[in-house]
Fold this protein.
Amino acid sequence: QVRLVESGGGLVQAGGSLRLSCAASGSIFRINTMGWYRQAPGKQRELVATITDGGSTNYADSVKGRFTISRDNAKNTVYLQMNSLKPEDTAVYYCNAAALTIAPIPVWDAYWGQGTQVTVSS
């Protein structure tokens, strides 16, 4: 099983910062792209940021200049530094990873964390 465990969510005032972490564990052979998504009440899940194993990043327009995604490949961990938070950033944030497992057979799949709540008060 592949598990993604998130941490770092919480309540913060507008203009504040949070740093989310997501550690992948399990019988993982390789992880390529990792990313963060979020889902606000009544809305569909949307992409926030992704990062490839080569370090290429992309961001939703709404977070460009405020959020920074990074990763530590040795730890199979992805981070999301969120600065200048706005109330509209309030959502459940989910970690995602494209991972290769090889037991019992090689399989590429996308895995999701349980989600962590980020609430930004005005």
Observations:
- The mean pLDDT is 96.
- The radius of gyration is 14 Å.
- The longest strand covers residues 91-101.
- The CA atoms of residues 9 and 118 lie 5 Å apart.
